Amino acid sequence: MESSQEQFGTTSSRVLVINHNLKVLDVEQREHQQIALHPGWNEHDPEAIYSNVVICLEEVSKRNNLSSQNVKAIGITNQRETVVAFDRETGKALYNAIVWNDKRTSDVVKQFSDKNNGNLDVYREVCGLPINTYFSAVKMRWLLDHVEAVRDAHEKGTLKLTSGKHILTDSSNASRTMLMDIHQLQWSDFMLGEFGIKKECLPEIRVSSSDNYGEISTIACVNGVQITGVIGDQQSACLGHLLKVGEVKNTYGTGCFILKNVGAKPVQSTHGLLTTLCYSLGEGQTYYALEGAVEVAGAAIQWAKSVGLLGAVKELESLCYSVDDCGDVYFVPAFNGIFSPYWRDDARGLMIGISLNTTKGHIARAILEAPCLRTAEVVTAMAKDSGYQVTKMNVDGGMSVNNFVLQSQADFTNVEIVRKKESEITGIGAAIAAGLKVGFWANIEEVEKKIEIDRSFKSDITESQRDKKLKRWQQAVERSLGFGWAETEEAVQ
Known about the structure:
Residues 8-240 form the Carbohydrate kinase FGGY N-terminal domain. This is glycerol kinase. It is built from 16 helices and 21 strands. It has helices at residues 46-64, 106-115, 124-127, 136-146, 148-156, 171-174, 189-195, 233-240, 298-306, 316-320, 360-386, 403-413, 425-437, 444-448, 463-480, 489-492, and strands spanning 12-18, 24-31, 43-44, 74-78, 86-87, 97-98, 159-160, 168-170, 180-181, 186-187, 204-206, 227-232, 248-252, 256-263, 274-280, 286-294, 330-332, 350-352, 392-396, 416-420, 453-457.
């Protein structure tokens, strides 16, 4: 998560120094390039990401005199769904990382849709996920189909979809691939067969908090320090909030990711949500979640700035409050399709309701309200799937510093929105996973005492106002569906 209001997720690598009181003592960040070779594509250079992490570690170590003598453990949290293929013999990446929001795999999705008579939910019972460009397996299949070096390494047995001395991942990351059995928390032979992927190319799956992830051996300032926590970014935020059964969190980054802890057994969604891991710390400490994925949140602000619709992020809140409402203007940021609960790759972005009376304040409101309205759709689906209403939502991420956003979220969901004093919740989650394993904290109860609330937000509008708002929003979304163009064969080759 970013401490600056100017930045949102997926764009940078960060290293945090966190003490026993769960206070962030220092942060170092390096941005990496977003590589878009074609419309709908998004890649990252894995070597650049690794280099940035090393630089960040070295910088915070210098400033804080860190070494293996005073660093108790390291926790890692990462983008989920993003895929990199490495050659086991050379340790080099065979292609750039294909990012979670990349849409090049539409042709792969269509192949599986045709194979299963249009049923994109055919694998949900096994892996908890629909067939969609979002998830890792279709990206792996694309690499095998389109990148000769990856295909050759796969056939020779030298391909690895992770890199290093220890070929490992945790169950939260594995749960986002479509290849893990959501019940057994191990790779599914059936799903591997469906996608034509060899099990030996995949990392071993472990719990998020483990003493078996190895130790740092190539970065002098922290050589010998154990890695005892590995967890996907959204699950890490769940742990950072210490999300209890029945509780919900929302992280406002590049997109919004709303997870509800549903307890020790997976809950299958019939309303467009995802069945996934919440977090797993070991024996008797595995929790599942229902997740709603909103594809665009902070990314919409970055886009609006880039085309001149909005100015500095720090001015957005006052700009939104310069008008009484959105002036009946709605913005659907479906730049490359729309995720939960629709799962429509053919949706495209739109702004509707503009008149000669529309001001920059109305446009700013529409853009900032959009992820809150999308979140409201997810909260409604969660209530239907779980059988009870959401009453409180814990929030974090770059946009959560904006009071207008959180008040809008409370208004559109009629849910209490709670913001913690410490904003780096995702990083804190990774620290908790790592620290618990080495006894830095004795147990979850000790950690819980150290978390402080900043403030909460409750709805200020009536039920009829809320219903009218959500109805108008639904009309806008319906107009965005089906407007997308299909990628040509030339574009995906």
